[in-house]
Every structure is written in structure tokens, then in C-alpha cells.
């Protein structure tokens, strides 16, 4: 058990180091990366289709990298916006890692890109632990998934800079309890902003884009209070679960994002620095 924990932490620490380097590199290229996480089918691609078109319409050239285990379906959908799009097939892996990102960002996206949307593999567990060099992490959940998902997936929701409740147009039909959901979010990530969106009606899409573009322009994203901790829930690729206590408490410092010994963060995707 201890060895599994050690190996796991070494993998995450290596990923964090690569992600910190990638964030600096993207910063140097003038690109802000936005990592979108949700369970399968919550509406990441549907929302991105709108965000790509609207970002371009507001004079901020976007690009999208979308990850799946199989098919290029999402890339095809996103490419209709006219934005540069890349499909990553993860070869069975349930999440994206910084090393994969780096490989895909060599010579891509085009130089004028200002915002890079990354659609992670549909999964609320594995992707949560991997920092991809993003500046903004958005976690989505749709109204049909159940109000308690934030407390059931505290790593994903606890490390979000912004939470999106998607498919708001179906809220009434689903009998969605907005107050219970808000309470559930507040328990794992106090103070995080929650936006309600619908890719059908367009509700909340401009508000979400406003938040993204503000971060592109240097606004500080909400800093998750769980930043700095390796949390207890995680399912491993090798098929079993175990828990480990927070191993260290080095919240990434917004003022000095690279102040951790070694110049890198020890955090899995947490407390992403403002730009
Ligand atoms: N009513 C409604 N349906 C939506 C909305 N957003 C997405 N959908 C539908 O939900 C289904 C899944 O949407 P996707 O955008 O493919 O979801 P995803 O999160 O990208 O899925 P994966 O990439 O497979 O994880 C599709 O049938 C969409 O048309 C929404 O706001 N309202
Ligand atoms: Mg998708």
C-alpha cells in the first residue's frame, strides 16, 4: 500500500513539474489554457462549440484540444466553428497528462491563439489530479446528474476555479434542486462561482466566456481552498482505490506561483496562478 502511494505521488509530482513548465511556456506564447472537466456527456463539447464561435467573434482567437479514448467525433463537431482543433486519443487512459499536452503543443496551436480550451476525457475522478498547465479549471455538471455530485467527487469540484451547471434548460423537467446543489458545491469549494448554462438556449454562455476572457486578460481566478493537498479519493489506472492523507500543505501562492522548492508546484492542478 505504501509503495503504491509513493509511486502515485511521484507520478503526480512529475506531472506537476511538467505542468508548471508548460504554464510558463504557454504564458510566453500569450496563450491561456482552460481545462474543462466533467463526467461523460455533461455537455463539454456542446458548450465549447458555442464558446469557440463566440470567442472568435469577440476578437480573441481560440483553439481547442479535445481528449477521448476513442473517436474523433468531438474534434469534428468543434472544427465546425472554424477554430484550430486537435483530437487526442488517450490510448485507454482515463485522463490527460501534462506530458501528453506538451507533445501536442509543439508548433500548435497557431501563433495568434490567445485561449486554448482543453476538453478532458469525460470522467470526474482521474482527470482531477492532473494539472495540465491550465490557468483556469472549469468543472461542469449537468442537471440530470444529481445535486450531491460535488460532495461525492470532492477532488474534482474542490479544485475548480469555476463550476458550471450545464443543461439548465432541463432543470425543471429533471426536478433539479438548485439549493441542494449550491450547498453541495459550497461544502467542498466555498466561495467558488457557479454559472448555470444551456447550450440549447445559450443561457450563461456569454457569462462563462466573460470569466474566461477576464482570466486571459490577467484577472485572478478563484483560488480553491483545497489547493495544496493531495486528496483522498482517486481511482487508479491499475484498478483499485486507496486513500492517502494530504501529504503536504503548500498552497500554490498566487503572488509567487513558482516559489515552491524546485520552482514547481506540488499541487495537482490546484490554485492555478493568475496571469
Ligand atoms: N438539453 C440540453 N442538452 C444538451 C446540452 N448540452 C449538451 N446536451 C446534449 O447532451 C449530450 C452530450 O453532450 P456532449 O457535448 O457530447 O457532452 P460531453 O461532455 O462533451 O461528452 P463526452 O465528451 O463524451 O464526455 C448531447 O446529446 C448534447 O446534445 C444542453 O445545454 N441542453
Ligand atoms: Mg465531448
TrEMBL record:
Keywords: GTP-binding, Hydrolase, Metal-binding, Nickel, Nucleotide-binding, Zinc
Lineage: Bacteria, Bacillati, Actinomycetota, Actinomycetes, Kitasatosporales
Organism per entry: Streptomyces pini
PANTHER family listed in its UniProt record: HYDROGENASE MATURATION FACTOR HYPB, HYDROGENASE PROTEIN ASSEMBLY PROTEIN, NICKEL CHAPERONE
Compositional bias of kind Basic and acidic residues: 230-258
Pfam families: cobW (PF02492)
GO molecular function: GTP binding; GTPase activity; nickel cation binding; zinc ion binding
Name under which the protein is recorded: Hydrogenase nickel incorporation protein HypB
All copies of domain CobW/HypB/UreG nucleotide-binding, residue ranges: 35-195
Region (Disordered): 220-275
Family according to the record: Belongs to the SIMIBI class G3E GTPase family. HypB/HupM subfamily.
One GO biological process term: protein maturation
